[in-house]
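Hey, can you fold this one?
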Amino acid sequence: MIRFVLYGVFGWCAEIIWTAVSHAAQALRAGQRIDVRLAGQTYLWMFSIYGAGGFAFELTHRLVGGWPWPARGCLYMVGCFVIEYCSGWAIKRLTGSVPWDYSQARWRVHNLIRLDYAPLWFGFGLILELVQRLIDAAEPALRATF
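Sure. Predicted structure:
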């Protein structure tokens, strides 16, 4: 449960930072003022997706940890696309809409994933390797605390 919560919180934080920076970059490209508050956003749905995705990542990392980093990054990228597509599809079936809006994106697939995010997911997977190491190192202290 601790690992689920840590991955969920990490995912939320990463998404909030990503959306804040993305909105600022869009404003710059459009020649508009940047909102200095750098407000980012996420959705409650995402906590469970990031938490469960962390477990899927850990299993994958255990299986391919010895592979060269470019191969691992490619596999993580595909995994992120699969998780994003499947979770988006399930949320849409349950609620009638998807929390994220890719309708204006050029490289969208069914408004559920964006293929132009491939480098982002590649890097995110490799960053998760570092996050997993931090969680592994902190877990004994966290278990003792809780």
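Residues 2-29 form the longest helix (28 residues). Let me know if you want another pass with a different chain boundary.
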